[in-house]
Design a protein that fits this description.
The protein is built from eight helices and 46 strands. By secondary structure, the protein is mainly beta.
Length: 816
């Protein structure tokens, strides 16, 4: 790493004057949003310059000889709404290749209505007029503290929480108080169930995202008013739009930082430019970093991503996408022992995971619209193990062993048409689900007192899931139109999902999910929006495939989790680069899984490195979340850009007693401010501040914790007092500084990204343990003798979990 860093500095210092480059280019394609047909005679202009061009008959354009800096690019065409791409950096190393969709105007509009509906700064659509946000690739790359991780970057948006503590290292995406497993992710129309390394099976989240930001053209987040084409969405739908490989040049980039090395390549695969590719690989160096700072954990991962696009003819495009990851989480010897480090070793499992998603998408232009066909397969293997002593790893001391595989083979078809201003979409999906789970878990080890009497019997789970392959299928219809001189937008949808396994799975009336959205232009620059909808999600495979020790499936009666959304809001667009929104929301949950063993709602779980749902449940829990959001977005129109979001909300769920209590995600307040400024000579500065209110947590059961600590490696929570305590709030700030140099055909970006630069403490749940001797070689005892198996002579203590995670990252990106 030092070699690469010094090499970059040498190139910068000694070669700048000899090889500096003064111009670059941008290219791309313009298409009709409704029909996906190429648009010609579209004017493409660089704002503030005389640089402009027109798209040809295939919608292709290119502008060369551009002075190297950041631009806003404006697309205008008669009969279409103006679209602006903000904050596009023109460098010498890589040529930007973009695909732009222009939305047609439906009629001759008044000046006021036309201006209010240009929507160049927002991502709102007829189907989803509110609760939608959009980030471009430049905003993701430059986000302070984001470390090129999309899952972290989106925490700048309204309603998005970052897990219980707020300043932690996990990507648990909490949307408007819903659980981390309520989100779905689509990559170019293909669902990707796993987007994080070291994923929590049955839920979501992990310490590091998998998706390569160099592939992403933009990200759209819908936190309500979901299009009916998306199944299993309760809290959000993420749509990741990948760019196409550059058909003009072979190019790429290399990114090196303190924690990883990533490479990306793209270019044409055929002389006629009809076939292009993107390919990347990334290698983690976290294990080296943690070794230097003497942490006992050793996370290690690889990930890979590719996209190949082929233009079969003028009406048909075939694409292939692939994404995969290899994860290993182990432990190593530490140089300096401490109670905190020793606790980490035995309280966490060994993790070995492999995952991939691959598939083909076919887009075919038809009369008045287009057809999408997607065929894909996703696969996830999770192998975790834990021992009473993770250093020795004795088979006789095994307390956890899970080897589980999930796979889905999917076919999705949707037809999208426009008739006289009516937008109509319909289609369906068919999936073959495969699941295997071999689990051994010691919930309570047999404990005997000094006289040999059993004071706690053994309680364990040992099964191999007999769940056979089963089908999931569904269909949808979405219809919308703008009325009254385009002032009123109305969109309605209907969806039903079924499966061949659960008791009521083949009854479409059980999951019939209507939704309607309204949007009305009140006056120049002001729009009112509202939506009501019902949404369903099938239980995760960890619940469906759970069996008792006789291999009998226990959760076949599980119902689809249901969430009803009620949302209303106001949007104010004073100009094309500035947006303000105010929204209020209420979500009501039914059929929430509740643990038979401890009586708590599973909606409170899913933010650790274990498995969620690998137990018997009843699906009769309830819940609700409600609140309001304020959002301001300033796109880069000169040298400054920024985001401000504030959310107040409450989140409550019931357990077996049907009493609503604050959930583990009930942080109450979220505040995020992100600012960026582009200076002359390619210097950039980014600053982010974030506040998250304290989350509820559960105290430990003193007697059970004492008896079981030596075998479990951690304390036992008292779920009769679920979430009766509350953590303190978290505040922190990140800063990022970039400096770019452009050479003949290369760009070097040197960056410093400091997470939590003023070292604010992130308060998490304290950890239960036994007091250790001064040299940390053994547990201290009340009688000075060896610690007893039942912990009766131990000295229980709580370790504070409030360390400041100050993380500076220095690195560089070379574009060529």
């Amino acid at each position: 790493m030092k070699f690469f860093f010094l090499l970059a500095l040498s190139i910068i210092i000694f070669s700048q004057s000899a090889f500096s480059q003064t111009n670059g280019s941008i290219a791309g394609k313009v298409i009709d949003k409704s029909t996906q047909k190429p648009l010609f005679n579209v004017n493409i202009a660089l704002e503030g310059t005389n640089k402009a061009t027109m798209a040809d008959t295939n919608g292709i354009f290119k502008i060369s000889g551009i002075t190297l800096r950041t631009y806003n690019i404006i697309f205008t065409s008669i009969g279409y709404k103006t679209e602006t791409l903000y904050n596009i950096a023109i460098n010498a190393g890589n040529e930007n290749y973009v695909t732009i969709e222009l939305e047609p105007t439906t009629s001759a509009l008044t000046e006021v209505v036309f201006k209010s509906n240009k929507r160049t700064v927002v991502a709102a659509t007829l189907e989803t007029p509110l609760s939608v946000q959009r980030l471009t690739t430049e905003e993701i790359k430059a986000n302070p503290g984001g470390n090129f991780d999309i899952s972290k970057v989106i925490q700048s948006l309204p309603g998005v929480g970052g897990g219980v503590g707020g300043g932690g290292y996990r990507n648990d995406i909490i949307i408007r108080g819903g659980g981390p497993g309520e989100n779905v992710f689509y990559l170019d129309g293909i669902e990707v169930p796993v987007i994080n390394h070291f994923q929590t099976q049955g839920s979501s989240g992990g310490p590091q995202g998998i998706l390569n930001v160099s592939f992403i053209e933009d990200v759209k987040l819908n936190s309500s008013a979901f299009d009916a084409r998306y199944d299993n969405a309760l809290s959000s739908v993420f749509q990741f739009k990948q760019k196409n490989g550059n058909p003009n040049n072979f190019q790429g980039n290399i990114r090196l930082s303190a924690s990883e090395l990533a490479t990306t390549f793209e270019g044409p695969l055929s002389k006629n430019k009809k076939t292009t590719f993107l390919a990347s690989a990334r290698r983690s160096y976290l294990q080296l970093l943690f070794s230097l700072i003497d942490l006992p954990i050793r996370p290690n991962y690889w990930d890979f991503q590719t996209k190949i696009t082929h233009q079969i003819d003028k009406k048909t495009t075939l694409s292939f996408i692939g994404i995969g990851a290899i994860d290993e989480f182990e432990f190593a010897e530490i140089k300096s022992a401490s109670p905190e480090k020793l606790y980490i070793i035995n309280s966490n499992p060994f993790i070995f995971q492999n995952t991939y998603t691959s598939g083909f998408t076919l887009k075919r232009l038809i009369n008045n619209g287009f057809l999408n066909v997607a065929v894909s397969r996703n696969w996830f293997n999770n192998d975790i193990k834990q021992y009473e002593d993770n250093k020795l790893q004795l088979p006789s001391q095994r307390i956890l062993s899970v080897n589980s595989t999930e796979a889905e083979n999917k076919l999705r078809v949707d037809v999208n048409k426009t008739y006289n201003g009516w937008k109509i979409a319909y289609g369906g999906m068919l999936q073959l689900a495969e699941y295997d789970n071999n689990t051994y878990t010691v919930l309570r080890k047999e404990i005997k007192d000094s006289k040999g009497a059993t004071i706690q019997p053994n309680v364990s789970i040992n099964f191999q899931s007999p769940l056979n392959n089963f089908l999931k299928y569904g269909a949808f219809l979405q219809v919308g139109k703008r009325l009254f001189d385009n002032r009123l937008g109305v969109s309605g949808g209907l969806r039903a999902d079924m499966n061949s396994f659960t008791t009521d799975g083949n009854n479409p009336l059980k999951t019939l999910s209507p939704r309607i959205s309204l949007s009305y232009v009140l006056a120049n620059e002001w729009t009112a929006n509202a939506s009501i909808g019902s949404y369903y999600k099938i239980a995760p495979y960890t619940i469906l495939g759970f069996a008792d020790n006789n291999n009998n499936l226990l959760n076949k009666n599980s119902k689809y989790l249901k969430s009803d959304h009620y949302v209303t809001g106001i949007e104010y667009l004073p100009n094309d680069g500035l947006r303000f929104t105010l929204e209020g929301f209420y979500k009501k949950y039914n059929n929430v899984p509740v643990s038979v063993r401890n009586g708590i709602s599973l909606a409170n779980l899913g933010s650790d490195f274990n498995v969620l749902g690998n137990e018997a449940v009843i699906t009769n829990g309830k819940g609700n979340t409600y609140g309001f959001e304020v959002f301001a977005q300033k796109k880069l129109t000169d040298q400054f850009f920024g985001l401000l979001s504030y959310t107040f909300y409450r989140s409550k769920y019931s357990g077996a007693n049907n009493v609503l209590i604050p959930s583990s995600w009930d942080n109450e307040q979220l505040l995020s401010v992100t600012l960026g400024y582009k200076f002359k000579r390619n210097w950039e500065l980014g600053l982010k501040f974030r506040y998250q209110g304290g989350a509820p947590y559960t105290p430990y059961n003193e007697s059970e914790s004492r008896i079981n600590y030596l075998s479990q490696g951690q304390g036992i929570f008292d779920f009769t007092k679920l979430n009766t305590l509350r953590l303190g709030g978290y505040n922190g700030s990140d800063i990022r500084i970039d400096k770019k140099w452009n050479f003949k055909k290369t760009t070097i970006d040197l960056f410093l990204d400091v997470n939590n630069w003023y070292a604010a403490k992130s308060v998490a749940v304290p950890t239960y343990t036994f007091k250790r001797t001064a040299d940390n070689n053994a547990f201290a005892t009340t009688d000075g003798s060896l610690i007893k198996a039942d912990g009766s002579n131990a000295i229980p203590t709580l370790l504070k979990n409030d360390e400041a995670q100050f993380t500076p990252t220095i690195g560089f990106i070379v574009e060529f």
